[in-house]
Every structure is written in structure tokens, then in C-alpha cells.
């Protein structure tokens, strides 16, 4: 039998693989994306949850990266308004730090210049009275508190939104399909997939390796991959703390010892604080990355250096959750993890009238631009496409401004509590009607499986969003793993065990 043939096969269902599949499918190409686990199950669900320019990259001289990132930040505010929201960051400056308020104000001024026209407030300096009233912030030797705006996002949902958008444009998007062999042909490649124990063979003129920290393993599947580049695996970890009282409404950018930056951000409707990230070399399997004891201690120390919780010091025992992601960065000659560039690096080679491209590095924020660059780079190897099209085009679920979306959710079924309707709006965007429709079509879909979780939502996650396990749903389709108690999580796990084969 002749194997099914595709123009492009994308390996990896993280943000970059999803973005390439979306862009290519929108140009009329026949695309297959294969992800060995779940979408965004590695680095793309373990970021700092930020859509940002990267303020510290200004100091490293990466002006082009900052400018592009801020341009893409403005783009995502328009195209994924249900997932990307502005957040004010406070930057406390102390006399013992090497960076003065004046040098930081100059950097923030350049940040404002690059982001002009995106509608976010300009940076500035808090009045002394307002700075003095900030809860828990240590006031000793405090010179100033500066402020600026960036954006936060649900990284896993953003990745899924890009992938589902690719599917609506004709791409075959498959999770739990591992690529096990890539064999060169005269004009492309034969690719073997493991579909849960069953082998499937396809052919593709072009293979794009977007496997994130696993790119080296994928390249080693074939002798026809581009020449290996110097790769640095860098682990970034975060800890989650209970939100103290009174709650923090703003995020903080903390200047730690040396050149590190640590963020402290409210998360999940202000119920928790996220503290991160680290930058440490990672050894071993990226799929087993976890927050080490040393990383926990470092982040707790960084928090306590700036904040004083009434009555006691925060310790490792206060941590309620952690996550860690491994970034595959193009190291060059730089070996210090915090200084390795986050700019992507693309390597390509020809295979007859086809080719193979590997993506190193990159940021969550700039995924759309990276996809354009990847397809453009394949042009000299024989890829013919229509022009770029993704700019200003809403992502899956992103076609309704946030205020309109929330007002629409309020008019949903009265049987669904208001807080659940709001959560659905900010999870599914303008696709919330797909979940509402399930409630109307089947009375059983209105069954509450866990507090605030209806069978309609679980069915939608399984049938539309390819969720196959409770972890898929609790950690990546939603963030209910921290909002439900053990009984609720067990009920979700039982539903998946009974209903998903």
C-alpha cells in the first residue's frame, strides 16, 4: 500500500509545533502534527505564564528580540483576548542593588518606546506614599518602586488554541503519536508513527522538528537531519505559595543577586502566588524535569529577601505545587544559563526536492513570528506557499473581546453557576457556546461530576480537545488540579477511567 503523503510533518505538539502547523495549513498545505505525549505536556505548559518583551534582554543588548516580543505581545492581546491579559509589575529598587533607579527608568522608557500603540499604560514610578503602603514589601533601604505592564497567559491553553486552529484549517493534529523512524527518500522522508502500539507509515516532503528539549533525540532518528548545533538544556522551575492576606494585586519583578530576575505573580484569581524562575543546567531526560531542593530553597530565599509575611518566614513547607520546564537553547559560546540567548535558531538541509528543519530555542510570546520564519526558510528547499497570513487573525476561541465574552457568558444556562460560566468563558473563549450546546442537547450532560465541573465540559475536553486522562484535563485543559480537593480530582479521574479508552 502507498503511504499517505503530506507536504509537511511537524514533530512536537508544543507551542512552536502548533504554530508551524497552523501557519502551514492556512497556506493550503497538507500538514500532519505528531506529538508523542499530550499537547503542551512539556515546556509549553511549564513557562512563567508570561507574554512579555523580556525586560532583562535589553541589558544583554538583544533589542531585536525585545522589539519583536513586544510586537507579538500586542498581537496576542488582540487575537487571544480570553487567554492573554495585562498585568502590572512593580520593580522595587534598593540601595544595595547594582542597578540604579535612573538606569532602570531608561530601560523602561525604551520598553515603552518599543511597545507604543498597544494600549497598555506607560511605565513610571510609584509615589512614596503608595510604595510605603505595599503589603509585606520590605521598606529598609528602598530607593524607589517602578512600575510597568506586561501580560500573563495560560500557556497550555494558548498552545491548544493554536493547535485547534490548525485543525480547523485542515491540519491533522494528533497527540500520543510518537515518531519512531525517519527514513530519507528521493524527495522527502518516510516517517513511522507509533499510534498507541500500532505502527503507521506516512511520507512527507518536509519534516519540521519542533520537539523542544527533545530536538536532539528526533534529529538522531535520521541521517538526513541538519548538522547538529551546540545545544544547552536549561531548566526553569517555579514554586506556588498560598496567597497571603491581604492579597497581592500586582506582580513583582525582583532583582536577585547577580543578573537573575525572579517574578512573584498572583495566579488563579489571586488564590496563589507563583515565584520563579530558575536558570540551571539540566542533565538527563527532559521529560523527568522537576524542581530540585536547591531550586526551591533559592526561590524561597528570593521571596523572603523582599517580603516579610506577618508573624513568620515563608519556608519550603509552604510550597503547595511546583513545575519545571526544560528549554533547548542554542548555546553558541555562552555557558552561563541566564545569559544564553532566547532568540530561536533554525537549521535546515535539503533532501531532494524536500527538506528537514530543526527549531532551537524560541519564546512562547514569539511563536507566530517563528512559524513564519520557519516556512520562509524552507522556500529555497522547494517549499512553495502563499504569503504570510496569520497577523491579526484570531486564534481558536479568540474572536470575541473579553468584556463582550464575559457578558455573553452571564447569559448562559442558569443551571451553571456564574463562577463556572466565567471560568468557561476565560477557558474556551467564543467556543463557550459549544459547551453550552451540549447542556441543551442532553440532560445527562448537566450532571456535576465534581464541584463546578459538568459532564458537558469533560465530554468537550475529550471529544474536541483530545484529552485522554484526568491529568490532561486537570493540568492542561484547565487548572483545576489546584482548585479542586482530592475528592473532586478523584471524581474526574474516575470519569476518564470509565469513559475514555
UniProtKB/TrEMBL annotation:
Outline the extent of the Alpha-glycerophosphate oxidase C-terminal domain. Answer: 390-494
- Gene Ontology biological process terms in this record: glycerol-3-phosphate catabolic process
Q: Which Pfam families match?
A: DAO (PF01266), DAO_C (PF16901)
| GO MF | glycerol-3-phosphate dehydrogenase (quinone) activity
Q: Which domain of life does this protein belong to?
A: Bacteria
Cofactors needed by this protein, per the record, are:
FAD
The UniProt keywords, alphabetically, are: FAD, Flavoprotein, Oxidoreductase
- For the FAD dependent oxidoreductase domain, which residue ranges apply? 7-367
State the family it belongs to.
Answer: Belongs to the FAD-dependent glycerol-3-phosphate dehydrogenase family.
This chain belongs to the protein called: Glycerol-3-phosphate dehydrogenase
Amino acid at each position: 500500500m502507498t503511504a499517505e503523503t503530506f507536504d509537511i510533518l511537524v514533530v512536537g505538539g508544543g507551542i512552536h509545533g502548533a504554530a508551524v502547523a497552523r501557519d502551514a495549513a492556512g497556506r493550503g498545505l497538507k500538514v500532519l502534527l505528531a506529538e508523542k505525549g499530550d499537547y503542551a505536556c512539556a515546556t509549553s505548559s511549564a513557562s512563567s505564564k508570561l507574554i512579555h518583551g523580556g525586560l532583562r534582554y535589553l541589558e544583554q543588548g538583544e533589542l531585536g528580540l525585545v522589539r519583536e516580543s513586544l510586537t507579538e505581545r500586542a498581537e496576542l492581546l488582540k487575537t487571544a483576548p480570553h487567554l492573554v491579559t495585562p498585568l502590572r509589575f512593580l520593580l522595587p529598587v534598593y540601595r544595595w542593588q547594582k542597578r540604579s533607579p535612573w538606569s532602570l527608568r531608561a530601560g523602561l522608557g525604551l520598553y515603552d518606546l518599543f511597545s507604543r500603540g498597544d494600549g497598555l499604560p506607560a511605565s513610571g514610578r510609584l509615589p512614596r506614599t503608595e510604595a510605603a503602603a505595599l503589603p509585606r514589601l520590605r521598606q529598609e533601604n528602598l530607593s524607589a518602586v517602578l512600575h510597568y505592564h506586561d501580560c500573563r497567559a495560560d500557556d497550555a491553553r494558548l498552545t491548544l488554541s493554536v493547535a485547534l486552529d490548525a485543525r480547523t484549517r485542515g491540519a491533522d493534529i494528533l497527540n500520543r503519536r510518537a515518531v519512531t523512524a525517519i527514513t530519507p527518500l528521493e524527495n522527502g522522508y518516510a516517517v513511522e508513527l507509533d499510534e498507541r502500539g500500532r505502527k503507521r507509515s506516512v511520507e512527507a516532503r518536509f519534516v519540521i522538528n519542533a520537539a523542544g528539549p527533545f530536538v536532539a533525540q528526533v534529529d538522531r532518528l535520521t541521517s538526513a537531519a541538519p548538522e547538529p548545533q551546540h545545544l544547552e538544556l536549561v531548566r526553569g522551575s517555579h514554586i506556588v505559595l498560598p496567597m497571603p492576606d491581604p492579597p497581592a494585586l500586582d506582580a513583582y519583578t525582583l532583582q536577585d543577586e547577580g543578573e537573575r530576575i525572579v517574578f512573584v505573580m498572583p495566579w488563579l484569581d489571586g488564590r496563589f502566588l507563583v515565584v520563579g524562575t530558575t536558570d540551571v543546567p539540566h542533565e538527563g531526560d527532559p521529560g523527568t524535569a522537576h524542581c530540585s531542593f536547591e531550586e526551591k530553597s533559592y526561590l524561597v530565599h528570593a521571596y523572603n529577601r523582599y517580603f516579610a509575611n506577618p508573624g513568620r518566614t515563608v519556608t519550603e513547607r509552604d510550597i503547595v505545587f511546583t513545575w519545571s520546564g526544560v528549554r533547548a537553547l542554542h548555546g553558541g559560546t555562552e555557558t552561563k544559563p541566564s545569559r544564553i540567548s532566547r532568540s530561536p535558531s533554525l537549521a535546515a538541509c535539503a533532501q531532494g526536492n524536500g527538506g528537514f528543519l530543526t527549531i532551537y530555542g524560541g519564546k512562547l510570546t514569539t511563536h507566530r513570528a517563528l512559524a513564519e520564519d520557519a516556512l520562509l526558510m524552507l522556500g529555497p528547499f522547494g517549499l512553495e506557499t502563499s504569503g504570510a497570513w496569520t497577523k491579526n487573525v484570531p486564534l481558536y476561541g479568540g474572536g470575541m473581546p473579553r468584556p463582550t465574552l464575559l457578558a455573553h457568558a452571564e447569559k448562559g444556562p442558569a443551571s451553571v453557576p456564574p463562577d463556572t460560566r466565567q471560568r468557561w468563558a476565560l477557558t474556551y473563549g467564543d467556543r463557550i457556546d459549544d459547551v453550552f450546546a451540549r447542556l441543551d442537547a442532553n440532560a445527562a450532560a448537566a450532571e456535576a461530576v465534581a464541584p463546578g465541573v459538568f459532564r458537558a465540559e469533560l465530554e468537550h475536553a475529550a471529544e474536541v480537545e483530545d484529552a485522554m486522562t484526568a491529568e490532561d484535563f486537570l493540568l492542561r485543559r484547565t487548572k483545576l488540579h489546584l482548585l479542586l480537593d482530592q475528592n473532586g480530582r478523584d471524581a474526574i479521574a474516575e470519569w476518564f477511567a470509565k469513559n475514555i479508552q
